[in-house]
Amino acid sequence: MPCCTDRFVLHTIDGAADLLIEELRAMSSVHSIRQLSAETVECAVDGPLDELVACALYFTVIGSGDAPLSWMRRFGRLERLPWSTNPVVAEVIVRLAKIRPGHHVLDPFCGTGTILLAARRRAPAAHIIGTDHDPRALAIATANGCHELAQAKADALPLQDGSVDRVVTNLPFGKQVGSHELNRTLYPAVLRELDRVLTPDGRAVLLTEDKRLLHNAIQRQRALKVVRQRLLRYNGATPTAYVLTRPR
């Protein structure tokens, strides 16, 4: 793979630059890392670009010899639907889940499989499971390389009690998919089901723009609590990722 001694400027999500910097610092070939803005990070690379190619936390890159860092080279040709999760967003919320080898990881709204693929890249030794009620989306997820899939509603999962270590999902915002009115019953029902399938030390990362509704549902349910929030800004959207665990 080509080598580079020039500097690169990486464009990521507003709200994820710290995660990108953390990964860059762990790369032996990357140095002189500097955050330029909420969305851009500058760095220099000595030697092959393999480590930077493997990083999936940025959209675009500016710098000489940047062809190996193209979107297609890093993510491949993913089949998508209009409401599919952005691949970089998927990478961000997967990192918030803190997946470990051997974990059973679930996306109950897996759609075309973007989050499942991000979880597999992040934790190849984890057991990745996807469910969705839409057979068309599941067919696309299969074409994208996802394997363990099931057609099911997120409030009636075909899983045993306490069988899931991590949940990472992009909830319906009530815009392109569903509605705010439907979310009034959907969100509480999904939280009850996650409470059922999560292990005692389980962790869930839920992304949504219907924030007040989710927050109120969590407060009423009380089986899971918010331990962290991360606001993301991209393409005019401003969803928040909520990290939930069981109260201690």
What would you say this structure looks like, in words?
This protein is α/β, with parallel strands linked by helices and 248 residues long. It has eight helices and eleven strands. The mean pLDDT is 91. Helix 4 (87-97) packs across helix 5 (114-122) and helix 7 (180-197) crosses helix 8. The protein has two domains: 7-75; 87-245, Rossmann fold. Strands 7-6-5-8-9-11-10 form a seven-stranded mixed beta sheet, sandwiched between helices. It has a four-stranded antiparallel beta sheet with strand order 2-3-1-4, with helices on one face. It is globular, with a radius of gyration of 18 Å. Keywords: Methyltransferase, Transferase. This is RNA methylase family UPF0020. One of its GO terms (molecular function) is tRNA (guanine) methyltransferase activity. Pfam families: UPF0020.
